[in-house]
Write a structure and sequence with these properties.
The protein has 238 residues and is of the alpha/beta class. It contains seven helices and nine strands. Residues 22-54 are annotated as: Disordered.
């Protein structure tokens, strides 16, 4: 009888322990479940992006461009919403990438920058290369590159943690985005139609950024709002 009572008690204790150990795991699993439909249909937020928000806030053409805060090569803080009422170009860059060099060594990128900023457009070059990765620069080096290449961006944003880059799903250098004065993303994709690193191809290519800026200026829809970007992969922090 004593043995039977002991056995019943042991079984009850085992059940209790099993339940206690399994319940938190089950709860965690349930709380982590997401609805794929919701994640792809939610409109982009207009709030500034922080590191913890980056994975949940995604830029989509035709929708409000996600706000963000970034620090430039001179230590000045910029917020996308500060430029409301102006067209904004985002250019992902990596000075060591041959596809980027194609457009800078040919003078193509500088020409675009000067034409755009001369027309009142805000041009933000963004460096999302992580420390120790190809293309990562600090402020002084970024300024030296701007000067030596005769570049003319409004500012060079240093995004070494990749927050801004991941928010805009920037995949290559270069990867270009055009935002309307109303704050909507009008274009995302390649700089032009020839995906090579050959400088001789620049003059033969259709420049998608120029086309997008013209359309936005004239209040017209961009004929090719999305294209396949080409270039080196963005060297994000692992």
């Amino acid at each position: 009888m004593l043995q039977k009572s002991f056995l019943v008690g042991a079984i009850a204790t085992l059940v209790t322990l099993t339940t206690a150990c399994s319940t938190p795991n089950q709860t965690a699993s349930n709380s982590g479940t997401t609805n794929p439909t919701e994640s792809t249909t939610q409109p982009a937020s207009n709030q500034p992006v922080t590191s913890t928000q980056a994975s949940a806030t995604v830029a989509r053409v035709g929708e409000p461009a996600p706000d963000f805060t970034g620090v430039d090569s001179n230590g000045k803080t910029h917020r996308l919403s500060d430029f409301k009422g102006k067209t904004v170009v985002l250019e992902w860059t990596n000075h060591e990438c041959p596809f980027v060099r194609k457009h800078y060594e040919s003078g193509n990128m500088q020409k675009l920058q000067k034409a755009a900023t001369g027309d009142g457009v805000v041009w933000l070059s963004v460096v999302s290369s992580a420390p120790g990765q190809q293309g990562n620069v600090e402020g002084q080096k970024a300024n030296e590159l701007t000067k030596s290449r005769n570049a003319a961006p409004t500012a060079v944003l240093l995004d070494s943690d990749g927050t801004i880059g991941r928010t805009y799903s920037a995949r290559t250098t270069p990867h270009m985005f055009v935002i309307t004065p109303e704050g909507k993303l009008a274009y995302a994709g390649a700089i032009d139609s020839i995906s090579s690193s050959n400088k001789a191809d620049v003059s033969k290519a259709e420049n998608y950024v120029t086309d997008a800026l013209k359309a936005v200026k004239n209040g017209q829809p961009v004929s090719k709002p999305t294209t396949q970007p080409y270039g080196c992969s963005v060297k994000y922090k692992a």
